Amino acid sequence: MNNARIQAVKLLGKTFSKGGYSNILLDKTLNNIDMSAQEKALCAAIYYGVLERKITLDYIISQYSRSKLSKINPVALNILRTGIYQLKFMDNIPDSVAVNESVNTAKKLKLAKLSGFVNAVMRSFLRDEKQIKYPDSEIERISVEYSVPLWLGQMLCENYSRSQMQSLLEGSVEKPPVTIRLNNLKGSSEDILPRLSALSPVKTPAEGCYEICSGNVKNEQSFKDGLFHVQDIASQLCCKAVDPKPDEVILDVCSAPGGKAFTMAQLADDKAKIYAFDIHEHRVKLIRDGAQRLGIKSITAMQGNASEYSESVPLADKILCDVPCSGLGVIRRKPEIKYKNYEEFERLPDIQYKILENAARYLKVGGELVYSTCTVNPKENSEVIDRFLREHKNFEGITFLESMGKPFGSFKVTLFPENFASDGFFISKIRRTE
């Protein structure tokens, strides 16, 4: 039973019961299954679509089901989610096909007794012309419209402008851009771009950064030849904030899979001394392999715990402290993050502070450190930096990337998709004064 819809239902069951990253689970499944390219594309579209819109879909189902969601058979619920998603959000699938295929999926998955229930809920939604009856509360409406938990909608409303919030939430239910960093160690942009014609690259505001408009980057010979690596523009701007120079000693304390280390090496013309660390040896290998593909010589990849001081690590001119975080800025790429409990994130600020405090011990007097995350949660961002500066008077905040315009111009910057079509991202830069 390798039907696209059946596989999407099975994948959703694994994701919601076991967790894990959606892209890894999907790739593993599709690489080991006998389906046509068209079927695989449909499976991926439905799977990711349901992940992106789960709260919205569950709200719709709850309007038409006599049973509470918690009482519905989990497989039948995922069949309904995939069916309602096709009805509401996939214009290329006729309504009749969406309903009939959902009913057939229930039968094929040995839920024939529930196929009538699936049919009834979907046809009731159709009779109301697929209109969503939103809640009156603004926060509840945001939650349903953009499929985000109430706590996330509340946090965004309390801390950011409406335009910032909307850019993040609207982007979270749209296809994210794919951006790459050209490898200047392999040649100039004039040399490299002609070999990327199949990808239809479009220049972005960041030098060396291009958005890919077609094709699969990792299937291209130009990728295998190390002419570029995939990296969101926000991460590239983070590396530019570090401002790596030739001959400087630079630490990347939470490096794997190594994209930021690669960009910093390129910005310094492969003449800096970059030490890239990860706590797990198999992830250190990712850094080494990536550097080898790109032809980078200046990176030394090593196993190390970013929260524990090591006498063997040299003092640095520059440090990148890109700490583990909740990932709320990249929900458009990893939608399953939205459905974690907020309590899972509560310990992160203390962990992040410990890593930052330890990393700062390696910094030379006059040296500069960039702290960054791919989240928009102030507790993991500005509050961590503010606490550090309060408790360490020998550090000061410094501005960076002013030439890029707003929102730069401070020592603390939160990026949203409205700025450079980037992921949500936080960057702060500090200097050791004594």
Which features would summarize this protein structure in a list?
alpha/beta; 434 residues; 45% helix; 17 helices
What is the typical, i.e. mean, pLDDT? 95
Largest sheet features: 8 strands, mixed
Q: What is the number of beta strands?
A: 12
Q: Please tally the helical runs, counting DSSP H or I stretches of 4 or more residues.
A: 17
Q: In percent terms, what proportion of residues is strand?
A: 5-15%
Rounded to the nearest angstrom, the radius of gyration is 24 Å
The end-to-end distance, rounded to whole angstroms, is 66 Å
Unreliable stretches, pLDDT < 50, 5 or more residues? none
Structural class: alpha/beta
Task: Please provide the ordered H/E string of secondary-structure elements.
Answer: HHHHHHHHHEHEEHEHEHEHEEHEHEEHE
Helix-residue proportion:
40-55%
Which shape, going by the Cα principal axes?
globular
Structure explained in plain terms:
- The protein has 434 residues and is α/β, with parallel strands linked by helices.
- It is built from 17 helices and twelve strands.
- Strands 5, 6, 7, 8, 9, 10, 11 and 12 form an eight-stranded mixed β-sheet that branches.
- Helix 1 (4-18) packs across helix 3 (37-64), helix 3 runs antiparallel to helix 7 and helix 12 packs across helix 13.
- The radius of gyration is 24 Å and the shape is globular.
In short:
The chain has 17 helices and 12 strands. It has helices at 4-18, 22-31, 37-64, 74-89, 95-108, 112-127, 138-146, 150-159, 162-172, 189-192, 221-224, 233-242, 259-267, 281-294, 348-360, 382-391, 417-420, and strands at 178-182, 201-203, 209-212, 228-230, 249-252, 273-278, 299-303, 316-322, 363-373, 395-397, 412-415, 425-432.
